[in-house]
Design goal:
352 residues, alpha/beta, 15 strands, globular, binds glycine, cytoplasm, DHQ_synth_fam, NAD
Length: 352
């Protein structure tokens, strides 16, 4: 199965689901991965990649390593391997690997091609598609980066079978996000899904493939309309404005990205409820779904003013106006940049 991300002639690409048999390249290829994925799946992948010369770069696992120091290490190794402008980089890992792989590919000798082979559910359903690349710094999450599209994405269920419950839950957060902002039918589907089978990676391939396919179809459609996030793509940031502050405040060590997004969605819903955009019943339905998939919905805010000020470092803030993405009913979301500080603080107070 393949889904096209329709951009212009030179940058459109396909996302292949469970179609990776063998890839042949007449160039040098470097696989960027982390220590955990390497141990579990690198040998399997290497058998599928036939390149003129094949190199491996292994980084540490975790969002706390998604920074400039790691980028410099990766670049140094690429220079040591004498990769040239025709070389290809394969990001083989979760969102952290694909964010960093895409970023180094975009700057190495002014840009080389890269492909994504995601190994987490979160990367399959969201991060590996759409060309957002980047790293964190002291000021915030993903504040350094580029829009740089992969040449192809290969999602393989076989690489997801070793994920633990937390990783699967984190991926599900991004899928729940898609449901809330675009498609209420997905909420029904998820409410009927056997969460125990899912969270122990025993979900049958048909359902897993359905989740990945549905999410990528929605995302490909949005990215095709608005590659660089000047309009409708902003909706995909639902929950993220809050999540990025949480991740930054906890030094990227406490929560997986999807977990922070789950809390962020609940914070956004609280604000939407206070503003009359979401009913109590709708709010509870989303919260119950997050809980069903063992996602957190609460983060203790010690200083609501400090939390509020941190929004102004986010990329989604323009001219001191914060763009909040809030659900307006189920399956629909709106961009709101006129919410008063008082209303935001009132919502944050629920978490203090
Ligand atoms: N993760 C949101 C986006 O790619 O736009």
């Amino acid at each position: 199965m393949q889904i096209k991300v329709n951009l212009d002639k030179n940058t459109s690409y396909n996302v292949y689901i469970n179609e990776l048999e063998k890839l042949e390249f007449d160039t040098k290829v470097v696989i960027l991965t982390n220590e955990v994925v390497a141990k579990l799946h690198l040998e399997t992948l290497k058998k599928k990649i036939h390149a003129k010369e094949l190199y491996i770069i292994q980084i540490k696992d975790g969002e706390e390593y998604k920074n400039l120091q790691t980028i410099e290490k990766i670049l140094n190794q690429m220079f040591e391997y004498k990769l040239d402008r025709k070389s290809l980089l394969i990001s083989f890992g979760g969102g952290v690997v694909s964010d960093m792989g895409g970023f180094v590919a975009s700057i190495y000798q002014r840009g080389i091609k890269f492909i994504n082979i995601p190994t987490t559910l979160l990367a399959c359903v969201d991060a590996s598609v759409g060309g957002k690349t980047g790293i964190n710094n002291n000021f915030g999450k993903n504040l350094i980066g580029s829009f740089y599209q992969p040449s192809a994405v290969y999602c393989q269920s076989e690489f997801l079978k070793t994920l633990n419950q937390r990783e699967l839950s984190a991926g599900m957060a991004e899928f729940i996000k898609m449901a809330v902002i675009f498609d209420e039918n997905i909420l029904d589907f998820l409410e009927n899904l056997d969460e125990n089978a899912f969270l122990t990676a025993k979900l049958d391939d048909v359902n897993l493939e359905h989740i990945i396919k549905k999410s990528i179809e929605l995302k490909a459609n949005i990215v095709s309309q608005d590659e660089k996030e000047s309009g409708v793509r902003m909706l995909l940031n639902y929950g993220h404005t809050f999540a990025h502050v949480i991740e930054n405040q906890t030094n990227y060590k406490t929560y997986l990205h999807g977990e922070a997004v789950a809390i962020g969605m609940h914070m956004a819903n609280t604000l939407a409820y206070n503003l009359g955009m979401l009913s109590k019943n709708e709010c509870e339905r989303i919260e119950n779904l997050l809980k069903k998939f063992k996602l957190p919905t609460f983060y203790k805010i010690y200083n609501i003013n400090e939390f509020y000020e941190a929004f102004f470092l986010d990329k989604k803030t323009h001219h001191y106006k914060i763009n909040f993405i809030l659900p307006c009913g189920l399956g629909k979301a709106c961009i709101k940049n006129d919410i008063t500080k008082e209303d935001v603080l009132n919502a944050l107070r629920v978490f203090s």
